[in-house]
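The following block was generated as part of the benchmark described in Methods. Ligand: magnesium ion.
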Amino acid sequence: METSVRPYYVPVGNEERVFLAAFRQGLPIMLKGPTGCGKTRFVEAMAHQAGRPLITVACHDDLSTADLVGRYLLQGGETRWVDGPLTRAVREGAICYLDEVVEARQDTTVVLHPLADHRRQLPIDRLGVTLDAAEGFCLVVSYNPGYQSVLKDLKDSTRQRMIAIELGYPPAEIEEKIIAVEAAADQRAAAQLVRIGRAVRQADAPGLREVASTRVLISAAKLIAEGLAPGDAARAAIAGPLTDDPLVAANLTAVIDAYLQE
Ligand SMILES: Nc1ncnc2c1ncn2[C@@H]1O[C@H](COP(=O)(O)OP(=O)(O)OP(=O)(O)O)[C@@H](O)[C@H]1O
Ligand SMILES: [Mg+2]
């Protein structure tokens, strides 16, 4: 989305330079990283920086080529072609962000191949046309390598056409700053939450599907900003969402309490 204020994103490494260089060269980009590490926010900031509209598609296993490209719809007794989000992005020269692309089936993502290479073209079989991507069009896909199943993995030929950017949870000082800004939290609460987050990430607790993301730490800070005690906030925003297993939850609570004592 293009807004006059750049969405708040704090760079951790050279990811902004890599993204903008790839964008200028018309190269597609793959963003890898765990949940809640800033992928979506990063793309929003980069779209703003590049001055291009952002069109986001949340991928899932029922997503069809027609969902991406478009379809004929019956409207008031007439059939009318309606562009899908990918086609709109190709026509408008927008950044098309396919979130969780590995969730989509391969027969859906084949349509990306000619778009992802030097041709930058989108064939639309139903219309019998092939569109050249407008200047500024950029394909960005994201996925979480931790979830990836071999079956759903991106095709090698597609992967090799892309520029990879790996994002992770930011280093402590940067994460503190992000939490303080995003939750309007004080520095001390932010620092405490970051210590908890890092401890949970290192705990490698079996039974945890995910580790504590920057997102859950921000949520905890928001509850604290509302006046909740840090322990209650951390249990509700960090421990609860991460597990349903009472034993694992008890372990997480112990980690949280230990760090709040300090
Ligand atoms: N580097 C950063 N700069 C600013 N904010 C950040 C940064 N990293 C994370 N955040 C914050 O963390 C929140 C979660 O990030 P975001 O939604 O972009 O994660 P994501 O990687 O897209 O997660 P998911 O895979 O679940 O979609 C954002 O709303 C933002 O507040
Ligand atoms: Mg996201």
